[in-house]
Amino acid sequence: MRLTTKGRYAVQAMADIAAATGDAPVALPDIAERQGISAGYLEQLFAKLRRKGLVVSVRGVSGGYRLARASRDIRVSEVVEAVDEEIQTTACGGKSVGCQGAGARCLTHDLWDELGRQIDLFLSAVTLEDIIEKRVTGMAAVNAPTNFNENYKLGAAE
């Protein structure tokens, strides 16, 4: 399972705006330079973010984009969803198709399906403010097994 660049770049750019000081709009070329993302690609993403009401555009010489709501009120899941990014963890083309065609599901289907739900829950729990205030580390450990920290360090098995 992999989150594609659309979702990652949209979250990076939105966090960049959230981290900007003051209420002044942030220009896409500035975001592009700081984040190492093509300005043209950002334009496509920001058109979608604007349509979904996550950013507002400001025209003019010192124009750019501002968050439409406070960073504490914008969830990462909203940003990913706004750019039409569906995180799919199963091989199914839909509930009626099944992983193996003709409605049959693979042996590990429920594992990957539940992983998708956990990703959705996690991204729904994280706000842009959490990202810029560096509060994301450790958030996934909320539902970790009690001996998780004893067996794993920084996400890698010993």
In short:
The chain has 158 residues and is mainly alpha-helical. The chain contains 7 helices and 4 strands.
The average pLDDT value, as a whole number, equals 83
* Major β-sheet annotation: 2 strands, antiparallel
- Helix-and-strand structural type: mainly alpha
**CATH homologous superfamily assignment of the domain at 5-87:** Winged helix-like DNA-binding domain superfamily/Winged helix DNA-binding domain
Could you please describe the fold and organization of this structure?
The chain is mainly α. The chain has seven helices and four strands; from the N terminus they run αααββααααββ. The model has no long low-confidence stretch (mean pLDDT 83). 22% of the residues are buried. Helices cover 44% and strands 8% of the residues. The longest helix is centred in the last third of the chain and has 17 residues, at 109-125. It has a domain at 5-87: Winged helix-like DNA-binding domain superfamily/Winged helix DNA-binding domain (Arc Repressor Mutant, subunit A), CATH 1.10.10. It has a two-stranded antiparallel sheet. It has helices at 5-19, 28-35, 39-51, 76-82, 109-125, 128-132, 148-151, and strands at residues 55-58, 64-67, 152-153, 156-157.
Question: What order do the helices and strands come in, and which of them pair?
Answer:
Blueprint: H1 5-19, H2 28-35, H3 39-51, E1 55-58, E2 64-67, H4 76-82, H5 109-125, H6 128-132, H7 148-151, E3 152-153, E4 156-157
Antiparallel strand pairs: 1-2, 3-4
Helix pairs in contact: 1-2, 1-3, 1-4
